[in-house]
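Second opinion, please. Please look over this fold, written as tokens:

===
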Amino acid sequence: MESNRDKQESSDSGEGSKGKMTLSLALVTLISAFGSSFQYGYNVSVINSPAPYMQDFYNQTYIDRNGVPMDEGFQTLLWSLTVSMYPLGGFFGSLMVGPLVNNCGRKGTLLINNLFSIAAAVLMGTSELAKTFEVIILSRVIMGIYAGLASNVVPMFLGEMAPKNLRGAVGVVPQLFITVGILVAQILGLDSILGNAKGKALAWEVFCGLHWGKISPSHHLVSFVAGWPVLLGLTGIPSVIQLLTLPFFPESPRYLLIQKGNEEQARQALKTLRGWDDVDDEIEEMRQEDQSEKEEGQLSVFSLCTFRGLRWQLISIVVMMMGQQLSGVNAVFYYADRIFQSAGVESNNVQYVTVSTGAINVVMTCLAVFIVESLGRRILLLAGFGLCCGSCAVLTLALNLQSTVSWMSYLSIVCVIIYIIGHAIGASPIPFVMITEMFLQSSRPAAFMVGGSVHWLCNFTVGLVFLYMEAGLGAYSFLIFCAICLVTMVYIFFIVPETKNKTFMEINRIMAKRNKVEIQTEKEELMDFHAIAAKQAQKKEISNSEL
């Protein structure tokens, strides 16, 4: 009887709180994702295409200063720093998530974060004119801090604003914009667009030509938008757009009510986001979550790691984040160029094929936005890691046999495409959605700090270790990634619950059983003081009528 009543209450509250995609929610989702997540993806791949020209600039700057060419080992070290400082900065950014979102709010943190991006964009865009490569390395650290904050705060912000029936779809949108950022950087980085070395000389030529009237403004436009410094500097534009538009949208209602205690502002924010005035059900659910966590307060990372009631949630996000980054996605993209060349694609055209893989990534992540609410999180995670596991195994075989069996090179291409599809629908977007859903307000910032730190540390580790793995193991490297995908998939199958269309408190109750933690009856039934008082009054009326 008790469980039936709980189910009935849960279903009633579910029907009452079902939301729709309003214009306000759609706009704040797009602005947050474009202004922040887009730049994470953009800066992942922006230095890949112009790498030879940037290394030439490093060497030429060194010659101008010292009169001798740069030692090859030193140049390799500098370029390794340029690449690896981005994920290392991401790790530092993840450590800043908790203090910033608790003190400045989710929206406030995103607005402050834009200053990092704009500063880095200016430094990178002017680095060639200033004849300094050191600021590029510094700017990569700053952009990493920006991306570390953005990759955690945007899913948290949007997950707290979305109604439960849209939380998964809205939560995948940041990952969609990450893939769009990667694709845009690949397109703009083509040799024929901005992936070239025309920056400084043409900019100076244009300035002088315009000043002395020797060239036309149209020539100025063509000349100025050329070269890798412009390619790197473009990253500041989305931040400027977000800085100008996001202040017109509300803060996270859960932050306003539960952490700031301002019910009126929270109610107003919900009305704006939902498009209707009756938001009592959601306010009630937030109040109940607030009451259930009053004893705990805001959890620190240390408290989170030692708190038995969140043990399996913590283990789950660590496993999913490690699986996401250690599953070989960077290795597959690294190998993609040579796989395409072995299949007969000319070296001059490989960059265009690489762009096509980026397009597949975008299309499949877009598909995930539309199917995550119908299929659920578990199915996408299992299918995603399953496809990655299978394609890594077959890819190992194909790469080893392609020198003797002609059609194996085409099988390699198919494996790369299937791997990208698997990662795009499950392994990439869903873990961040799960962090939002598996933790309540008091522990969510600390959970994002842990999950984000694991994400960026694993990213940094793969960047350092993979070249050595590839040199030692060759194509057999993918067997290691296959095993990691398999272990992650088995863990998800046995441990991670389905969170589709459930409130945060309902998910918390599911995980409490796994953690073998008792939840008090009042909390379990999601009743606050007023609801309990009303029930007691009803009982009194019944007893009086019986008398």
Residues 1-17, 199-225, 521-536 have pLDDT under 50 and may be disordered. The two ends are 26 Å apart (CA to CA). Residues 541 and 547 are 10 Å apart (CA to CA). Residues 301-537 form a domain with the Growth Hormone; Chain: A; fold (CATH 1.20.1250.20).
